[in-house]
């Protein structure tokens, strides 16, 4: 995300949250007024503290009247009692502001979850559960902390400034400028810091998504020789994340400076101003009273508020923004309304997989392998891909499977950007060299769907043509040694695995090359019966004819059509079909 767009996103998040907060606060004016009422006691305590110290010194101890001095100090100590009562009252009233927020967020997240469940076409995520449980609690705690700190800041600062003014209005000339400058600088850091925070989180999510995809596709990556590319992509993600973290750290430095300006600079300036203030009649007691305000009241209140805004405040905005998505529950069905199933059939079915103007090159200076390729696979589609060696068929398979990221354009699955979905739930990619591990045939077949039932296994064995292998091994539960299976048997095991998965997209990259034509036709027929779409990189012309739809790849040029159309339109397809016709299948 660029700095500019990050800033815009953060700005809109802040704006959205502010817009949503206004009616919430308006509806709770009474709770706010009561909270303010209790907080005035805090104002009084702060105001009294510095003033009592000044009087204790000027009228008492420095004047030789110890009793008067002690009486003023006792008054300051007594002021803590109503302030303690105020804290009790504040906490009791806090619930009126905090609990409705949590309840409202939970209601909203539940509605969002229902909306998503009723309308989403792809696999659902755990996001709504997190919003209902964890994120609503973060919002509640963050909001409570912010209300407490903001209230304390307003009343303590007002009490301290009123006390300083009562001691001598000149004190405000010394204290106010650094205070206001520090706060202004701090507020100026908020939008860029929110933007950097967002960039950092985005980079973190990208890295996690890449790691998840890579972990799920380790075998495919090893088979297609994509390890170096996967590592390079991970390194790129790490670099982006490190840049975002450094930018965030720089802004954190500016924030520390802002805190120092408003928390510490007033004390320093007051020290420098002592000669000037005393020349204008400020007494020793008033000076100590002023330092009391700065070090015991103003400094801690400023520090507490600004650091809370910096931590919980940022989290609060990010979390609240996640709740402000659209919530539109579909109207309950009426007698005259069509049933959901009927509506579903009327709605356009999203493509299982889609390439939108996809480019791919193996390096910045490398010749592109895919050039603005558009491809749509709908449920029930069978597409065979043919082309000479090196024309990009395996590259297309990797990009469609989400193993290789396109250098341009977009890969979509089930109507959504591929990066948003769990690849293992959407697609199964079978390479030419399949993986069979030591273990039973049952374990091998259930590798992608560990909970497959026995009758489903039996159906797969029969459909793919694995019965002979099961018989030879002596049953599904006999341990097998992968090295003792023939290449064709290994491919049959992998095809059985693919037959058992529920992934709606199957990509076969010459995955039947070691089978004889009959076995290949049988396995392809069985896979074609599954729901979803199948893309087959054809090894024989039979695959192209069975698929009924063919994509011919010739360099970056592609032609698509039925075999009959292509015999007419594509010299390359005619050539390949002619060559293949000498090979049985
Ligand atoms: N990891 C890689 N790094 C660099 N170039 C690559 C890489 N993999 C493939 N290529 C190049 O990309 C182009 C397309 O290769 P790809 O393997 O997709 O073609 P193909 O049609 O599947 O070939 P075949 O039928 O021989 O398997 C070729 O020029 C190939 O040399």
TrEMBL record:
InterPro entries, per the entry: AAA+_ATPase, ABC1_TM_dom, ABC1_TM_sf, ABC_transporter-like_ATP-bd, P-loop_NTPase, Type_1_exporter
Species whose genome carries this gene: Streptomyces clavuligerus
Subcellular location: Cell membrane
Transmembrane segments: 35-57, 69-91, 143-165, 171-190, 256-278, 284-306
A Pfam family the protein falls into: ABC_tran
ABC transmembrane type-1 domain segment(s): 46-300
Protein name listed in UniProt: Membrane translocator
Domain ABC transporter: 355-579
Gene of this entry: amfA
């Amino acid at each position: 995300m660029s700095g500019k767009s990050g800033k815009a996103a953060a700005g809109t998040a802040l704006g959205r949250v502010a817009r949503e907060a206004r009616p919430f606060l308006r509806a709770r004016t009474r709770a706010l007024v009561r909270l303010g009422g209790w907080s005035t006691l805090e104002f009084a305590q702060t105001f009294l503290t510095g003033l009592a110290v000044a009087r204790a010194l000027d009228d008492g101890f420095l004047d030789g009247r110890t009793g008067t001095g002690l009486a003023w100090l006792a008054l300051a100590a007594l002021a803590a009692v109503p302030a303690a009562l105020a804290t009790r009252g504040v906490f009791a009233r806090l619930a009126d502001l905090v609990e409705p927020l949590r309840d409202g967020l939970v209601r909203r997240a539940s509605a969002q979850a229902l909306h998503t469940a009723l309308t989403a076409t792809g696999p659902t995520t755990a996001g709504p559960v997190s919003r209902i449980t964890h994120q609503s609690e973060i919002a509640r705690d963050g909001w409570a902390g912010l209300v407490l700190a903001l209230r304390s800041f307003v009343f303590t600062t007002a009490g301290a400034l009123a006390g300083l003014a009562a001691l001598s209005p000149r004190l405000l000339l010394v204290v106010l400028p650094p205070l206001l400058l520090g706060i202004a600088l701090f507020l100026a850091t908020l939008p860029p810091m929110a933007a950097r925070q967002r960039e950092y989180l985005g980079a973190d999510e990208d890295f996690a998504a890449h790691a998840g995809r890579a972990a799920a596709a380790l075998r495919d990556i090893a088979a297609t020789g994509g390890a170096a590319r996967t590592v390079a992509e991970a390194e790129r993600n790490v670099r982006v994340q490190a840049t975002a973290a450094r930018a965030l750290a720089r802004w954190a430095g500016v924030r520390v400076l802002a805190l120092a300006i408003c928390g510490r600079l007033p004390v320093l300036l007051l020290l420098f101003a002592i000669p000037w203030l005393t020349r204008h009649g400020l007494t020793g007691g008033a000076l100590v009273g002023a330092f009391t305000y700065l070090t015991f009241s103003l400094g801690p209140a400023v520090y507490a508020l600004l650091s809370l805004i910096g931590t919980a405040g940022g989290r609060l905005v990010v979390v609240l923004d996640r709740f402000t998505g659209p919530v539109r529950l579909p109207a309950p069905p009426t007698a005259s309304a069509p049933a959901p199933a009927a509506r579903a059939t009327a709605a356009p079915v999203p493509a299982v997989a889609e390439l939108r103007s996809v480019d791919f090159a193996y390096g910045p200076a490398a010749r592109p392998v895919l050039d603005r390729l558009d491809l749509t696979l709908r449920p029930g589609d069978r597409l065979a891909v043919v082309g000479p060696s090196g024309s990009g068929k395996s590259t297309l398979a990797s990009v469609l499977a989400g193993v290789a990221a396109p250098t341009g354009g977009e890969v979509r699955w089930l109507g959504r950007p591929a990066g948003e979905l769990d690849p293992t739930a959407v697609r199964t990619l079978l390479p030419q060299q399949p993986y069979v591990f030591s273990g039973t045939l049952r374990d091998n077949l259930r590798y992608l769907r560990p909970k497959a039932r026995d009758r489903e296994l039996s159906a797969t064995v029969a459909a793919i043509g694995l019965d002979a292998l099961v018989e030879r091994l002596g049953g599904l539960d006999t341990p097998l040694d992968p090295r003792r299976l023939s290449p064709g048997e290994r491919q049959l095991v992998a095809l059985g695995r693919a037959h058992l998965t529920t992934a709606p997209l199957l990509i076969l990259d010459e995955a039947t090359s070691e089978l004889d034509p009959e076995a290949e036709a049988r396995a392809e027929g069985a896979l074609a019966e599954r729901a979803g779409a199948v893309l087959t990189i054809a090894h024989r012309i039979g695959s192209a004819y069975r698929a009924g739809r063919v994509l011919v790849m010739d360099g970056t040029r592609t032609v698509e059509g039925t075999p009959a159309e292509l015999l007419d339109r594509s010299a390359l397809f005619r050539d390949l079909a002619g060559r293949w016709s000498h090979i049985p299948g």
